[in-house]
């Protein structure tokens, strides 16, 4: 992912925010907060992860799959994309 270097700081900032969200979930569980609060934090964290995934996936598609030739080590661009989508929905 050497091409992500230009977006490195943005990606790291996203990861740090997600890390903070996860730590807040942990604190809520330790403090025995209500289910509604924990569920809200979980869905917020999930949304942040989905947003990060979308950014990285879009960059991957634009950089490696659009107009790419078949890479015998990784298969066709179409097969790579299908594999990524399947792994996301597991």
Automatic annotation (TrEMBL):
<dbReference type="Pfam" id="PF02583">
    <property type="entry name" value="Trns_repr_metal"/>
</dbReference>
<protein>
    <submittedName>
        <fullName>Metal/formaldehyde-sensitive transcriptional repressor</fullName>
    </submittedName>
</protein>
<dbReference type="InterPro" id="IPR003735">
    <property type="entry name" value="Metal_Tscrpt_repr"/>
</dbReference>
<dbReference type="GO" id="GO:0046872">
    <property type="term" value="F:metal ion binding"/>
</dbReference>
<dbReference type="GO" id="GO:0003677">
    <property type="term" value="F:DNA binding"/>
</dbReference>
<comment type="similarity">
    <text>Belongs to the FrmR/RcnR family.</text>
</comment>
<dbReference type="InterPro" id="IPR038390">
    <property type="entry name" value="Metal_Tscrpt_repr_sf"/>
</dbReference>
<dbReference type="GO" id="GO:0045892">
    <property type="term" value="P:negative regulation of DNA-templated transcription"/>
</dbReference>
């Amino acid at each position: 992912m050497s091409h992500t270097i230009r977006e490195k700081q943005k990606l790291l900032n996203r990861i740090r925010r997600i890390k903070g969200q996860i730590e807040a979930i942990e604190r809520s569980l330790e403090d025995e907060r209500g289910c509604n609060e924990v569920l809200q934090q979980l869905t917020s964290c999930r949304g942040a992860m989905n947003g990060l995934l979308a950014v990285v996936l879009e960059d991957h598609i634009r950089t490696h799959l659009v107009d790419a030739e078949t890479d015998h080590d990784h298969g066709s661009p179409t097969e790579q994309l299908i594999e990524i989508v399947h792994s996301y929905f597991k």
